[in-house]
Structure formats: structure tokens, C-alpha cells
Design brief:
Elements lengths: L2 H11 L4 E5 L3 E2 L39 H4 L5 H5 L3 E4 L6 E6 L2 H10 L4 E4 L4 E6 L5 E5 L2 E4 L5 E2 L9 E2 L2 H4 L32 H16 L5 H16 L7 H13 L4 H15 L2
Parallel strand pairs: 6-10
Antiparallel strand pairs: 1-2, 1-3, 3-9, 4-6, 4-8, 5-6, 7-8
Length: 279
């Protein structure tokens, strides 16, 4: 048994969901059945989760505590070429603030509560108890890794782990300009019927958008699928009269990103919903 597999089994036995990383410290590539599905969803589905394929082919979603999967023949080739062991922080119930250099560390010491720290090649991982959505580049040299992300395992670290504070959660709230709104080219045509569009009544439209935001926010699983179905419902109700604006769509994208969706996933889900409805 090689050293990386031994480490992985020890961590999995302790409850930490792990996965192998190849050269360059990136996950192994997708299997042929799941090509192009970088989120780790099952074939032809949008929700993250294990594929029917037992290979470690889904990035963060491949992380597991199942010792039988980790030692299965399908995973054997991966472990023989593993460069490092990673884990899924969200699956372990923690959040990692990845500080890439000394400037980022100095910033964290001024702004964030002390917690367990792990030394990295150039900086530190600050680990908090609790989960949130992952966000890259919240500032120079600082990433947040929790749900839908992986982090290299570099040792147990030092210090007591602190409960995830609001000051860290607030770092994931980006400025409105960082949310990719639907481009003008995606605006749907106005209705041709006579009379005023009923959706232009502020209370009617705002209630529809608020309910959509609530549906996304309350999702406890299958977030990808929930976002897509919600976008589909909004477009079904409001997508043919031209009353939806970029501001409305930005509200939906913000709710989706708060659940861990990337701007790209939001845009793809919106475009796919429009295509399905022909609007």
C-alpha cells in the first residue's frame, strides 16, 4: 500500500471525505460516461453526487469515507499516480480560508478570528467549524473552500478550531457587479397581445421573484436541479412578455450563488431553461 492511500484510509476512517490528486494538484479527469460534467453530477443530470462509475472522476464530489471504494480495483490506477491527498471541507463540516502568501496571512490576522491553522507551501489554511459556499479570489491570495470544493490535506494543523464566524461568511457576499446578470441578448420579446402586461404590476412580479429566491435558498439537496427548475418556472410565468429585467435575473443568480452555484452554472441553467421553453 502506497503512502498516499494509507493516509487517505486513515483520514476516511476518522470521517474525513478524501480523494486523490494527480500531478499539478488537480483531481483525476472525468470518466467517459461523465465527460464535461465538471460539477460531479450523475450522467445527464445537474445535481452533484456519485456517479454509477466507481472511479475517482468527479473532483470534489469524488471525496468519500467509504473504505471499500477507496480500495476498489477501479481506484487502483489513480492511487498509483497520486501526487497528494485532498478532502472535501464541506463534507467534513468545515470551511478552509486558503491564504496563499505572507500578505494574505497578515490580512487574515488583522481581520479574522484565530482558529486552527495548517501550513501550506507558501501560506496557511485557516480552518473553521461550519460550512458555507466556496468563493475564489475574494481578495489577492485568499480563497474560501467549503461546499463544492476540495483542499489538499497537509496535516492536522495547530490551535483550536473556531466556529465559522459571520466575518468569514461575509467575505462570500460579492459586490453586485460580480454577479453575472443575463445579457441584454437574452431578454425575451414582448407580448404581441393588446393591453398592459399583467406582470408589470410590481406586486405580482416581485412576489414571483421572491418565491423563486426562497425556493433556491431553502434547497437542501440537488441544488443544481432546483436552480434549473426554478429558472424554468420563472421563465414559464414571466418569460414571454418582456417584463423581466437584468435586475430580476441578478436576484435569482445571487440566490443561486449563495447556495454554491458558480456564475457559469447560473448562466448555463438560465440559457438551458430559455431553450427548453423556446423563449
Amino acid at each position: 500500500m502506497n503512502g498516499h492511500l494509507h493516509t487517505a484510509l486513515r483520514l476516511a476512517a476518522s470521517g474525513l471525505p478524501v480523494l486523490p490528486l494527480r500531478g499539478g494538484k488537480v483531481p483525476f479527469g472525468n470518466c467517459s460516461a461523465c465527460a464535461q460534467n465538471g460539477c460531479g453530477g450523475r450522467p445527464n443530470m445537474k445535481s452533484p453526487g456519485p456517479c454509477v462509475c466507481p472511479k475517482p472522476c468527479h473532483g470534489w464530489a469524488a471525496a468519500t469515507t467509504d473504505l471499500h471504494i477507496l480500495t476498489s480495483p477501479e481506484w487502483g490506477p489513480a492511487w498509483r499516480h497520486t501526487a497528494a491527498v485532498a478532502y472535501h471541507p464541506g463534507g467534513a463540516g468545515v470551511t478552509v480560508v486558503d491564504l496563499d502568501d505572507s500578505a494574505a496571512i497578515a490580512w487574515a490576522r488583522e481581520r479574522l478570528p484565530a482558529t486552527r491553522t495548517v501550513a501550506t507551501t507558501r501560506g496557511e489554511h485557516w480552518i473553521y467549524r461550519g460550512t458555507m459556499r466556496s468563493v475564489n479570489a475574494i481578495r489577492d491570495g485568499v480563497d474560501i473552500k467549503s461546499t463544492m470544493a476540495y483542499a489538499r490535506y497537509l496535516g492536522p494543523g495547530t490551535g483550536a478550531m473556531t466556529t465559522l464566524p459571520d466575518t468569514v461568511r461575509a467575505l462570500a457576499v460579492k459586490e453586485p457587479s460580480s454577479v453575472r446578470p443575463v445579457p441584454q441578448a437574452l431578454m425575451v420579446p414582448a407580448r404581441t397581445e393588446g393591453g398592459e402586461c399583467r406582470h408589470r404590476a410590481p406586486a405580482y412580479l416581485d412576489r414571483g421573484i421572491a418565491l423563486a429566491e426562497q425556493r433556491i435558498t431553502e434547497a437542501r439537496s440537488a441544488v443544481h436541479a432546483t436552480v434549473y427548475r426554478t429558472f424554468l418556472a420563472v421563465l414559464s410565468a414571466h418569460g414571454r412578455c418582456g417584463c423581466l429585467t437584468n435586475a430580476h435575473v441578478a436576484r435569482l443568480f445571487t440566490a443561486a450563488q449563495a447556495k454554491g452555484e458558480s456564475p457559469r452554472h447560473c448562466t448555463d441553467a438560465w440559457t438551458n431553461a430559455r431553450t427548453a421553453l423556446g423563449v
